[in-house]
């Protein structure tokens, strides 16, 4: 049996900010195996988001999954990162 998925301490705060900014957000943390933490939708565009703490490193599974993925994956390390990303990227879509 698989143990419960662990999320970084800032996962909920980043998710909540994205929702407040009008994004639809689905947590993928329970999938594991290197899959990014969040599926984010805004203005009919979809983004994969990896949540890490300031000093958090990608696991081997995450690094491999990210390397094999042919789309964009965004790594957010703080609520400030998420707000900046929303302002620079998502709002321009």
Write the SSE topology:
Blueprint lengths: L10 H10 L3 E4 L10 E5 L2 E7 L8 H9 L4 E4 L2 H10 L5
Parallel strand pairs: 3-4
Antiparallel strand pairs: 1-2, 2-3
**Element order, helices and strands?**
HEEEHEH
State Rg.
13 Å
Structural class: alpha+beta
Mean pLDDT: 89
Major beta sheet, strand line-up: 1-2-3-4
CATH class value = Alpha Beta
Number of strands: 4
Largest sheet: 4 strands, mixed
CATH architecture: 3-Layer(aba) Sandwich
Basic shape = globular
Q: Might you state the CATH topology name?
A: Trna Endonuclease, Chain: A, domain 1
End-to-end distance, in Å?
A: 41 Å
Enumerate how many helices there are, as a single number.
3
> Strand portion, in percent?
15-25%
User: What helical percentage do the residues reach?
Assistant: 25-40%
* Total number of domains: 1
Low-pLDDT segments: none
Question: What this model shows, in words?
Answer:
The chain is α+β, with helices and mostly antiparallel strands. The protein has a single domain, classed as Trna Endonuclease, Chain: A, domain 1. It has 3 helices and 4 strands, in the order αβββαβα. The protein has helices spanning 11-20, 60-68, 79-88, and strands at 24-27, 38-42, 45-51, 73-76. It has a 4-stranded mixed sheet. The longest helix has 10 residues, at 11-20. The chain is globular and about 30 Å long. The mean pLDDT is 89.
